[in-house]
Amino acid sequence: MTKVYLITGFLGAGKTTFLNHRLNQTQAKVGVLMNEFGKISMDTITVKKNDIDFLELKNGSIFCACLKDKFIEGLETLVKTDLDEIYIEGSGLADPSDMGKVVKVLTKLVGEDQFTFEGTVCLVDGLYFELELEKMVSVERQIAHCHHVLVNKVDLINEDKLKIIVEKIKAINPKVGITPISFGEVTFDEMDLTYYPIADEETTNTVDNKPKNIVIKFKVQPAIQQVRDFLVHMGSHFYRIKGFIEMDDMWYKVDLVNDTIDIVPYTVAEVDKEKSGYNQLVCLSSQGLASISHLAVTAEKDLAMLYTIEM
């Protein structure tokens, strides 16, 4: 019997970090289905894929009509592979309000004796949760339709702020269990994940509201300061910017979430350096054409002659 888990959480909350910790903890036969809104996935680069059955669905949400059929087909394939555990990582903007319907369709396809849906784990960014809750309906939906919330990055907030976050989560989902964590580190025993029925709603993920993705590909190595200046100027125009870039003859993992910029050294194997996904920034827009226009103007100023843009 295969155990199926869904991992949700807004952009930058720590879903992939949490998943990696889980993959390192378990000795089970594991499958991973990873979803990215963009055409290019950055998170798949960081997931440990040795001895793991891995499927990737890009350019939309698995809960949107644009990918839902492929999502169910992918799950069916993984379940029939006779795995012990399957982890689904939804995109940061995913609204999983109709996951129950997905489970019902999957049950009809493979039979109820082939898998159990163990529940949804939602990661919350302790630093930016209140801001994101005000701006994004998907944040509230992710909490309302989960079975356990992990409040991540509690090392960056105080007890008073944590208490406020817990109260707001409970107001949305009174039954949900909550565990404060840092760096995405927690065991399933510590979580005590317990499944309970949650009534489905229509998902808010549609083809019409799918955010735009812009990819900046570097032709020449930029300096770290150039990239940092560029990210500072992006402000609220983008939900998330991330990538793996060679700068000043070293490789770095680059990440922008809200106003937080992380540029940290990253080890890239020689055989991977020419693969798709490296030396580029994937930018998920929050304001459509206004975001694209802002990026084009800012890139010309901060990164002139170093890049090409793809949409």
> Helical proportion?
25-40%
Low-confidence spans:
none
Terminal CA distance:
42 Å
Q: What is the makeup of the main sheet? A: 7 strands, parallel
- What portion of residues belong to β-strands? 25-35%
- What is the N-to-C order of secondary-structure elements (H for helix, E for strand)? EHEHEHEHEHHEHEHEHEEEEHE
- Rg (CA only): 19 Å
Structural class: alpha/beta
Mean pLDDT: 90
Q: How are the strands ordered across the major sheet?
A: 3-2-4-1-5-6-7
User: How many E-type strands?
Assistant: 13
Globular, elongated, flat, extended or rod-shaped: what is the shape? globular
Total helices: the number is 10
Any overview of this molecule?
It is globular, with a radius of gyration of 19 Å. The termini are far apart. The strands form two sheets. Strands 3-2-4-1-5-6-7 form a seven-stranded parallel sheet, with helices on both faces. It has a six-stranded antiparallel sheet with strand order 11-10-9-12-8-13, covered by helices on one side. It has helices at 15-25, 43-46, 68-79, 99-110, 129-135, 137-144, 159-172, 188-191, 224-234, 289-302; strands spanning 2-9, 30-35, 52-57, 85-89, 115-125, 148-152, 177-180, 213-218, 238-247, 250-257, 260-265, 280-285, 307-310. With 311 residues, the chain is an alpha/beta fold. The chain is built from ten helices and 13 strands. The mean pLDDT is 90. Helix content is 31%, strand content 27%.
Put the structure in a nutshell:
With about 300 residues, the chain is of the alpha/beta class.
